UniProtKB/TrEMBL annotation:
The lineage of its organism: Bacteria, Bacillati, Actinomycetota, Actinomycetes, Micromonosporales. PANTHER family: TRNA N6-ADENOSINE THREONYLCARBAMOYLTRANSFERASE, TRNA THREONYLCARBAMOYLADENOSINE BIOSYNTHESIS PROTEIN TSAB. It comes from Phytohabitans aurantiacus. Residues 36-152 form the Gcp-like domain. InterPro entries: ATPase_NBD, Gcp-like_dom, T6A_TsaB. It comes from the Bacteria. Coiled coil: none annotated. This is tRNA (Adenosine(37)-N6)-threonylcarbamoyltransferase complex dimerization subunit type 1 TsaB.
Length: 221
């Protein structure tokens, strides 16, 4: 079963094609570009590129897997709208995966932290791939206290590197961003079971930077 994987919850814009079989998940092609200001410009060409590289056509797709975040409003929305649109157009199911879960799919106990801007991080703690805390957005100093309480000694993700001194734990070099293979693996059981498609609900965790005014200002004649 051929699955399109997309994630735009971080500055990395990711698209990949994964083959999901009864006992394995294999990434056949993938593209990743890191640019926090160009999610909209980069994702569609990346999807076209991975299809072309694998010699596949859109109608060959069995399902769409999308990273749900948490992530900044604009970039995350690009990935989810793209995934939902492709799924609807092709009449194939869409499955969502927490983007932090893809980074936390590792052995041992690890703090996953991605950059949330505003000097904050999106974070969660995992043990052997199982999430121990709910995704949250906090100041690095707050996260450091929680990590210490939970006995975490290793961190991963872009936020872990950016705020390594404050977090007070060793930051692993890779991966910095959610791996396509892990996103596909986390949705593989649903793909194999041909589960009903899901509404792709983003994990924003906070309000967007731009909000509509709640009160209209009077206009002077």
């Amino acid at each position: 079963m051929l699955v399109l994987v997309v994630d735009s919850a971080t500055p990395a814009v990711t698209a990949a094609l994964a083959e999901v079989s009864d006992d394995a998940v294999v990434v056949r092609s993938q593209r990743r570009a890191v640019d926090a200001r160009a999610h909209g410009e980069l994702l569609a060409p990346a999807v076209e590129a991975v299809l072309a590289e694998a010699g596949a056509r859109p109608r060959d797709l069995t399902a769409i897997v999308a990273g749900l975040g948490p992530g900044p409003f604009t970039g995350l929305r690009v990935g989810l709208v793209t995934a939902a649109s492709i799924g609807q157009t092709l009449d194939v199911p869409t499955y969502g995966v927490c983007s932090l879960d893809a980074l936390g799919l590792l052995d041992g106990k690890v703090l996953v932290a991605t950059d949330a801007r505003r000097r904050e991080v999106y974070w969660a703690v995992y043990e052997d791939g199982t999430r121990l805390t709910e995704p949250a957005v906090d100041l690095p100093a707050t996260v450091a206290g929680r990590a210490a309480e939970l006995g975490v000694a290793v961190a991963i993700g872009e936020g872990a590197h950016k705020y390594a001194e404050v977090l007070g734990v060793a930051a692993r070099d890779e991966p910095l961003y959610p791996p396509a293979a892990a996103l596909a693996a986390l949705a593989a059981d649903r793909v194999r079971a041909k589960a009903p498609g899901e509404r792709l609900t983003p994990l924003y965790l906070r309000r967007p930077d731009a909000v509509a005014q709640s009160v209209r200002k009077p206009v002077l004649p």
